[in-house]
Amino acid sequence: MQFLSFLGTARDSAPPKPARLGLRVVRACANFLAEHHPEHGNEVIDPLDFDLGGVFKPHFAYARSQAPADLRALADKIDAADGYVMISPEYNHAMSPTLAHLLNHFGSSLFAYKPSVIVTYSAGQWGGLRAAVAMRTFLSELGCLPVSAMIHVPKAQDVYREDGSVQEGVEATDWSGYLGRAFAQMLWWAEAAQVQREQSDPHALVRDFKRDPSQRNAP
């Protein structure tokens, strides 16, 4: 199976220090999946790789062949993926504006009927917990239902090095078990959804939201 890990930070400067703390967390998740589940693919989606400036216009608002090439490529990856790892810091008790802005460019039909894992982090003591609670509603609306186990990393700079490895003095097995619980749930649901999609196309049962807002949860 193939998974996408969305990084929810675009701030590549200090302060705060260290800059782009989320890179450590996304690399830790990628390292875990590569080590414990090498049979599956995982690609990190970095918002800095996309030019989303100017007036907001989502991928689905373009004529089929006229969307920017990077948005078309990411839409294809989202559609082909079996699940998602959503990694975010906390801003005002909510998910990162960067992550929300990136995800809002794509219709829910691309994400739907697949699982997701919520991963939050902070430089302080709460680990982005309040953002994680709000992310459940957001991701459910996209259709990539979050698994029950979540991952929160308080003081992430003291837990992970730049390459995503565990800092000296931190109990690596504790963090491995913590990540493993959430990813085990994601893999179970992803496999179940994959099997079910092969038997019954969910998009044939419910209209996709692609262009017209009336297609979105309308009575």
Which labels suit this protein?
six-stranded parallel sheet; Rossmann fold; alpha/beta
Topology record:
Blueprint (H helix, E strand, L loop, with lengths): L1 E6 L13 H16 L4 E5 L23 H12 L2 E6 L1 E2 L2 E2 L1 H7 L4 H4 L2 E8 L7 H14 L1 E3 L4 E3 L2 H4 L12 H28 L20
Parallel strand pairs: 1-2, 1-3, 3-6, 6-7, 6-8
Antiparallel strand pairs: 4-5
Structure notes:
This protein is an alpha/beta fold. The protein has one domain: 3-Layer(aba) Sandwich (Rossmann fold). The chain contains 7 helices and 8 strands, in the order E-H-E-H-E-E-E-H-H-E-H-E-E-H-H. The strands form 2 sheets. Strands 1, 2, 3, 6, 7 and 8 form a 6-stranded parallel sheet that branches. It has a two-stranded antiparallel ribbon with strand order 4-5. The protein is globular. It starts with a strand and ends in a 20-residue tail after the last helix.
- The topology string of helices and strands comes to EHEHEEEHHEHEEHH
Query: What value does the Rg take, in angstroms?
Result: 17 Å
Architecture per CATH nomenclature, i.e. the level-2 architecture: 3-Layer(aba) Sandwich
Report the mean per-residue pLDDT as an integer.
89
The CATH topology, please? Rossmann fold
Distance between the termini: 35 Å
Main sheet record: 6 strands, parallel
The beta-strand count equals 8
